[in-house]
Structure formats: C-alpha cells, structure tokens
Amino acid sequence: MRNTLLIAGREYAENARTKGFWINLLIFPLILIASVKVPELLEKKAKPVRNFVLVDQSGEFEEAVASGVERFEARRVLQELTAWAMANRRRDLEIPEVDLEDVPATGISDLLLGGSGSTLEGLIDLDPGFLQRLLDPEGLEQVVAAIRPFLDPEAPDFVPPKRRFERVPLLPGVSPDAPPEEIVRTLKPYLVDEDYPGASRPLFALILIPEDAPQQLLRPGSLPTARSDSQDGVQFWSANLTDRNLAEVVRDALDREVREREFLRRGVDAEVVAEVQRTSVRFVAFDPTKQEGEEAVSLADTIRKWAPVGFVYLLWIAIFNVVVMLLNNTVEEKSNRIIEVLVSSATPNEIMAGKLVGIAGVGLTMMAAWILSLVGILNYLAGPAVSWAGPLLAVVRSSGLLPLFALYFLAGYLTYAGLFLAIGSLCNTVKEAQNFMGTAMVILMVPLFTMVFIAQDPNGTLAKVMSWIPFYTPFVMMNRAAASPPTSELIGTGVLMVFTVFAMLWLSGKVFRIGILRTGQPPRLLELVKSLRTPRQLR
Fold first, then answer.
1. Across the strands, what pairs with 386?
2. Which residues lie across from 30 on neighbouring strands?
3. Are 381 and 36 in contact (CB under 8 A)?
4. pLDDT, tens digit, for every residue of 60-108?
5. Cα–Cα dist 421/417, whole Å
6. Where in the chain are the domains?
7. Which pLDDT tens digit goes with each residue over 521-537?
8. Is 51 helix (H, G, I), strand (E, B) or coil?
9. Closest of 307, 316, 495, 314 to residue 413, by C-alpha
10. CA distance 318 to 366
11. Quick check: pTM over 0.70?
12. How much is the pLDDT for 402?
C-alpha cells in the first residue's frame, strides 16, 4: 500500500506541475464566459453594417420594404433598451403586473422593466408608432427619461445599437427603369468584391422588384412555375448565403403588404384581422411527476431536463483527458525506462494501482475546479440580463446531479483507464499507441452522437439498451438522471458498472504485467490471449 501511495503521489505531482493541467483548469471557465459574452460582443461590435440597393420597378413596394427595415431596426433598439433597463433596475422596486389596455402610449417603464417578450409585442401592436419613436433621437430620449426613475442612480447612459442595414442609392448613370438583367449585370461586380461608390462598406445585397411583381403572387392552391429562362418575382441578389436576416426582413415586409392589400380588395378590415390573429388560448405545460399544486412547468424545469446533456459532455471531456494523460505517461515512462526503476521497487500491481489513483486525483481536481468555476460564473451572470443563469444555478445546486456526476466519472474513468493503461503497457512509442487508440476512440465517441436523442427520449428503447452496454453505461445513465429511470435499472446498471470495473482492472492488470517490460514489437493478439490464460508474476 505504501508503494502504491508513493507512486500515486508522484503521478499526481508530475501531472499537476505541467502547463497542460493548468490550461485544462482555466480553459473551462474561459469557454463558459466566452460562450455568453463573445457572441454578444460580436453581435454589437464586430458585425458590419449591411449596405443594400433597393430598386422597385413596380412602384408599389418601396415604402413597404423601407418600413420593414425600419421596423427591424426599431425592434433591435427595443431589445437593447429592455436589456439595459432590466440590468440596471433598482432592486428595491417591485414592478407590478400591467394590463396593456391600461398602458398609455408613453407609459412603458413597467413593461420594459418587468414585461415579457409577448407583452412587449402587445405594446407594439397597441401603439404602432412606438417603434418609430425609438428611432427618433428625441423620442428615444423621452422613453429613456421615463425609465430613469426606476433605475440605479449610477446606471450608465443607454447607447442604442448601430444599424444593421443601410440603404444606399443606385449607381449614378444606372436607370431604375432599365431592364432587370441590365441592372443586375451592372451591379454584380459590386456584390462580389468591388467597393461601392459612396458607401463605406461593400454592397451586401441588391433587392430588385420587377414591374410585374404584383402579378407574381403565390395564392393557396397555386404552385410556383420552374422555368430556367425566367426570373419571376422579387429578386434578392447577395454573395453572402449565410446571413439571411435582410432577406427575411424584406420577405416579411412584402408578405405583410400584399396581405393587407388582399384584405382591402376583399372588403376585410385589416385591423380586425390583426386583432383576431393576436388572440390566442392560454396554454400552460404541466409535469405529472411534480408534487400536487406545483405541476406547472417553469424555465428551471426545462433546464433541469436538459442539464444532464451538459454533464455528459463534461464527463466525456474529463474522462478523455485523464485516460489520454494516463496513456501518454505510461508510454513515456516505458520508452525512457523509468518503469524499470519502478519495477525494481514495487510490483506491477502496485505500479498500476498507483497510476490509477494518481491520475484519478488529477481528474477529480480538474472536475472540482470546473464545477466551482461553473457555480461562480453562474452566480456572476445570474440576473435579468441572462435569464437562464439563475435557474441553471438552482438546478446545479439542488438537482442532485453533482453526486451522480462524481460517481459516473469514477466508474467511467476506471473502465476506460484500465483499457488505456493496458494499451500503454504494450506500446513503446506514442505512435504505436495511436494505432491502438483508434478503436477505443470510436467506442468513446458513441455517447456524444446519441446524447441529445437520449435526452429527448430518456426511457426509450435506445436509452435502455445502451444503459446495459458497460462502456456506455456511465454516460447514458448520467443523461437519463433527470428523467427518474426505474429503480431496477439504477441498481442493475450500478451493479454492472462495479462488475465491469473489476473485470476491466483484472484484465488490464494481467496485460500490464505482460507488457510493462516488453520491448520491440507489441505482442500479437493470439500471443496476448495465451498469456492472459497463463499465471505470470515478475516478482
């Protein structure tokens, strides 16, 4: 036992002093913070203004498209304004529930500070001019002034987001009444790589509305014609096929316009239709597994069901890191003949046990650091600006997933550590070990491919079958933890994991004793099987 602990301490110290260990400790909190802050920063700072040219040869849709773009920009200002107000509101004020019918057009502070997204949508519908006022500096200043009394006195000034889309005029000398093919041919170079005259940035898109666009409507029961020699309907030209925001804004604006015209043509009041479309049934989800009176599903309940997926991913990363660390250490010590020095003072079983315990300590240290950083970051992020952080923190603290995570980490680690330790003992170089690792990696990747599906159907056939496959049991049962799998499966798979760990360590111990001092070519499979059946001790 003394030799085992000495080897374990040496193994832990050797790995804890490496740069890779500290990088692994720091990378998780950095990634977690970056996953929240970087997209937000890129959205605000890095995404460029998209310049577009609008040519409406029909003379009927230019105003509708322009209004649609302005509506999109105003919604972005409203979203930023709401986030700013909620992040800086005074904590000693309770924002009451407000009925939209009682809200004056300018009295929006309660809604911005405490309203939901659907309530804000209702406010927009109640006062269509509200969004337009947000784009006017004086109107925005009035709105901010109405909110200020409810905010922290040291709240920073509200900075509206920069515009996402900017319309630029058609090139001088190009007639808007020219044939569409000619306009497209003239502007194509500017859509690809040439700088557009009079614009600070390249041309992002050309929106061309042909003269006959009002006649190219798709009505119920009709199908679009597919003619290779024709370009019917509104044309959207852009070399960027991934950013579809402008295309969606234009399409929505055009659809809204033609539908309002259809209402007028058929003698239907568009406002009545809009009011009817805003009418909806009150829909509440309930969970039958919760206590009576608390069955309503909340955001925390949804997060609780999906949290195991995140833990499975962390479990996979942790097990992969530590078993690869164990493999590399074993191969390196064997190639440097350090293992021969260890064998002179300890038995192969003591060496193997010491390595397993030492690397397990490294893995547990890494896991503890990750969990503590997760709790700390969620505490920092929790608040109105990041609505999911608080419920996720509550789930991490109270769901009981952390003890299961530690249990399944140890079970998965010991199972795979035995396999990788055996591989390391048979190889003289890392290159040889990589050849053996291929098959092991294929086995280890399967839980990643299935973790989302299992979370959606945690008690389905696939989940139940994979729960009884020893190499996948820790991952699948961790994934099913929030779905309350049957007690028989929890106990049965637990017994299976214990048996698998002992069997894997026993087999790995025999392979370790065979290969630890072996040099030259790794043993062939038949030779290895024969050796396993023959008792052999070095000491």
1. 383
2. none
3. yes
4. 999 999 989 988 988 888 888 877 887 777 766 555 444 434 444 444 5
5. 6
6. 2-35+298-532, 49-219+229-277
7. 555 555 555 555 555 44
8. strand
9. 316
10. 8
11. no
12. 81
- Is residue 229 scored above 50 in pLDDT? no
Give the CA distances from residue 159 to residues 110, 141, 156, 245, in Å, rounded to whole numbers and listed in that order: 20, 11, 9, 23
What is the token pair recorded at 502?
A: 């002992």
Task: Work out the mean pLDDT of the chain and round it to a whole number.
Answer: 78
DSSP 221-274: T------TT---S-EEE-S-SS--HHHHHHHHHHHHHHHHHHHHHTT--HHHHH
Q: Are 273 and 263 in contact (CB under 8 A)?
A: yes
Count of Cβ atoms closer than 10 Å to residue 469 Cβ: 16
Rounded Cα gap, residues 174 and 528, in angstroms: 80
Cβ-proximal residues to 1 (8 Å cutoff; 6+ apart), any chain: none
Q: Of 325, 313, 304, 462, which is closest to residue 392 (Cα–Cα)? A: 304
Q: What is the DSSP letter of 383?
A: B
Residue 61 identity? F
Tokens of 120: 């804000």
> What tokens were used for 479?
């994934």
Alpha-carbon span 482 to 476, nearest angstrom: 11
Two tokens, residue 164: 């996402």
